[in-house]
Amino acid sequence: MEEKALKEIPQLSMEDFKSDQMVKWCPGCGDHAILSSVEKVFPQLGIRKEDFVVVSGIGCSSRFPYYMNTYGIHGIHGRATAIASGVKIANPDLSVWVITGDGDSMAIGGNHFIHVVRRNIDLNILLFNNRIYGLTKGQYSPTSPKGIITKTSPDGTFENPFNTGELVIGAQGSFFARAVDKNPKMMVKIMLEAAKHNGTSIVEILQNCVIFNNNTHELITSRETKDDNQIHLEHGKPMIFGKNKDKGLVCKGTKLEVVKIGENGITEDNLLIHNQYSEDPGVHNMLARMTPPFSPMAMGVIRSVKQDTYNDSLDEIIKVSKETSPLKTVDDLLTSGNIWEI
Amino acid sequence: MAKNKLVKEREDVVVRFAGDSGDGMQLIGSLFSDSTAFAGNDFATFPDYPSEIRAPQGTIAGVSGFQVHFGHTDIHTSGDKADVLIAMNPASLKANLIWTKSNGIIIVDSTTFVDKGIEKAGYDTNPLEDNSLTGYTIVNPPISKITIEAVKDLDISNKVALKSKNMFALGVVLYLFNRELDSVNEFFEEKFKSKPLIIEANKRVLKAGYLYAENVEAINPTYKVKPALLKKGLYRNITGNIATAWGLIAAAERSGRQLFLGSYPITPASEILQELSKHKQFSVKAFQAEDEIAGVCSTIGASYTGSLAVTSTSGPGLSLKSEAIGLAVMTELPLVVVNVQRGGPSTGMPTKSEQSDLMQALYGRSGESPCIVMAASSPSDCFYSAFEASKLAVEHMTPVILLTDGSIANGSEIFRIPKVASLDKINPPIVKANDPDYQPYKRDENKLSRPWALPGTEGLRHRLGGLEKENITGNVSQSPKNHQLMVELRDEKVERVANYIAEQKVIGDDSGDLLVVSWGGTYGVMLTAVEQLRKKGMDVNLAHFKYINPLPKNTGDVLSRYKHIVVCELNNGQFVHYLKSKFPHYTYERFNKIQGLPFMVAELEEKFKTIIEKNNK
Please, how many CA atoms are within 13 Å of residue B408, restricted to the half-sphere of its CB? Predict the structure, then answer.
């Protein structure tokens, strides 16, 4: 894959990106770790600190821009992707980051979310998925698992949740990755890949809401169960996971199946090799869909394909129009077509 | 055999073309307008089309119309009733007869006045035969039949041939007003470049109409309207929506900003998005968003980066944008919202015009949320209004809602083309890199506007947002006293715009008996009615408002100088309520029309006369 050409790297550090505002998330909230990962990523991108714009909507995660010493907009509920689209289309030289949550992007902002993905506007979208409404104090969200009891589902939800990855891929997404707040190293690595991707990058970060949905991602975060319930995908490598690195994924029909290496004659050679650059979204979709405890949660870059971005196409048309249009000045426009003199 | 030809002179004439919505009435209407321009007349036009794209053929629901009013004198409206009606089928005659003068000329296609067509239109008997049209001059060539006849030796089907029948009607009208066929023939050659058969067919049918009119006794006399006495200059015909789009492009040029439009198609505002989508050569970025909300939100994002940022919509779309406009009020970013009003509420009457979004523009947001509100007066004024809305938005760092309406958006009039360099310079308050005094909410002493610091600029990193901000620093603040201060500052900022706009003018005398008050797109008809009554010696004066919030500084003074005030608007009394709240000590009479139709000059004159008579009793 062709990556974005990086500018000459100015010497920046985490400190350059910390704002002077007090961080007001709950102690123990996953957001703290995400903030610190972003502060680590920005100085590594070779982008001037003035060229970052951080845009958010509403929700706990959306306070994020106030904590970053960059340009930023704390928008309105669900509209971060729409606001950020305007920022990026108007000025393609900016590195635009969207901070959003499961409610902000997939409930109230669902429409903008799928359309920004479809247009492949070069935004880096960090989607904090805690599967609950935190800022409004504990109602179910569009990613809450079926049956969950919350303030607005006292009898358990009976709605089907969205799977973020499937939604993104279904919306023609060119980049989808998944990370978890408890693994900052992985977050940093994935965010760096997202930043380099030319197009809309969606990074779903499984994040814990310590107050209203504590341990929602327990299976993939607790020391005892995490290795058997997540698989770290790496491009070109076989899909292996498990505490003892003895499990793998094979494709059976339209599904991925967990197999044990050494059992039934299975060797590493039988396992699927991850190809994040495959244009065909078939396997990416199957990977995105996997959910513990039936299969491991796919982590890492699931999909990263090259597509023209909105700005690539728009800027090309603008360039051609400037060269070919007979209207060179606004006066030419006003006097175009039928005019007469009196 | 040529008849003995009589030519009469007329000051002004109204021609109305009506037919099925597939009959090409809009096209011959605009071709006739072009011919009118070449004849040197002043003119204004208005299309009247149904909201259905193709309603059942031959029915009243499917009738599409186009009216042209032209004259030797100044023309400010598309005219009350038509002197000449072209009705291509029985339904269009039925729908438009009430818009035709009782002694008018009616040109119909008699081929269509057969049982089926008559029945579809809802007539019991054939109106051409039952004497119901007594008093009118009827010209009833079998247009469809002659059209097929005229092109029978060309290798085209009857179906294709009939597409040209509108040109027969145009030929008749061109003869009636002693016009040449050249400009229309040139149009065919340009339009159908690669289809010589179609060019030939259209030319023949146009000519056939012209020759028919020359020979038929019913068309005598013909008419001539002398060229208008217009100010020297270059002119063109322009609709309000195109003028709006061009005014925005001109404002981008004069402010040195890139133009960004975030919009979603909606009747009757879509042409603004369509037009701006065509002008990428000026770096115009017209973004067709997924909905109205994304339209305005992307615009706010673009504004943050320093674009002249505009969103266009119509009534229900403005409702969807309310929350985001509140964000622009809070972040104090420049934003132009063009609202082409239509009949509401809800989906209402999308293709009909109304002035019923005034309250929504003024107050339709949460919290204390003042915006500049202004309204364009006419199709060509949309150019200057869009330009000025842009200037006020960027110089005062605030959203501006510009109200136009379906009538002026789709209507056209002639436009004296300005030189772009002659337009005001627009000076955005952009902050220089590393300005040591920069603070996000530190305000300009006079305007109270905050500075515009653009992403990418060194030393000015800052965060904006919908949460209340501390004055000067722009940090999030929920302090009670700061909130009151900020609410007052945002209000005062908009109030002070009154120092930067023109004072309210009155057409007529400095003081007197009746002051007619109106606003927005009704200017042409109000002016015509008031001027006509003044010619008759009546003490009627006109204050037509363009600036609604803030009102011009002298508004109270203007209102105080007349014995009686009547506020005329195409809604149920929104501006009059607003004036009452600002200037409660005057008595206001009102004239409201809420029919999706424009005011008629005649009904206004009648109303004003009645008021004067009543008051002088």
Answer: 31
